[in-house]
Amino acid sequence: xxxxxxxxxxxxxxxxxxxxxxxxxxxxxxxxxxxxxxxxxxxxxxxxxxxxxxxxxxxxxxxxxxxxxxxxxxxxxxxxxxxxxxxxxxxxxxxxxxxxxxxxxxxxxxxxxxxxxxxxxxxxxxxxxxxxxxxxxxxxxxxxxxxxxxxxxxxxxxxxxxxxxxxxxxxxxxxxxxxxxxxxxxxxxxxxxxxxxxxxxxxxxxxxxxxxxxxxxxxxxxxxxxxxxxxxxxxxxxxxxxxx
Length: 244
Known about the structure:
The protein is of the alpha+beta class. It has helices at residues 3-14, 19-26, 30-38, 45-54, 58-64, 67-71, 76-79, 81-88, 94-108, 114-118, and strands spanning 123-129, 135-142, 157-160, 176-181, 190-195, 198-206, 211-217, 221-227, 232-241. The chain has a nine-stranded mixed beta sheet with strand order 2-1-3-4-9-5-6-7-8, with no helix packed on it. Strand 1 (123-129) and strand 2 (135-142) form a beta hairpin. Mean pLDDT is 78; it is low at 59-94 and 104-115.
């Protein structure tokens, strides 16, 4: 069992709450909560903090839990046997560990902690980019067979929707959209693009080999015909996430 899962279960039992009651309060399924308690489910740091706050552990959440702790919510022996073996190796002296970690970061360009490095084969810290492509936060995303949604994990990012221009397509202001690289139009896809010196999300309809229709839907549907050569396609949207 993970440290986080053990804490949630202990506090739930202390308050005489059933898994179903806690799950309902947190807005997740009972099976999801049980998996988190058992340490067999990867969980994003913001959701972990939300669960802890919901059961009354706000102070401990902020004081004692870091992103590194939450990244280790999964039982390594169950998530990846190779990771478990790595963790079981003799511990280095603190000075040696710091030095080796810094050396690895220089050589590989990896930022983060020892835990995130160890979990890099199953979990990736993906940046959330704002409208000017600056990171404002991060989300932990599972990596499957070395890929995220079929793409290189280093090329994937979330885009923070800056307005409601796509709410007719179920993307509202403040939602974060997972995107994968795509430099050419994909018919029927919602894409992040540059056009007329602006960056925004639009649904794409390919009209012919030279033109596309850029579709938006705020209070009413709108569409703009554009030359493909005039549009800078950045990425394709594959998933949207929002807070309840």
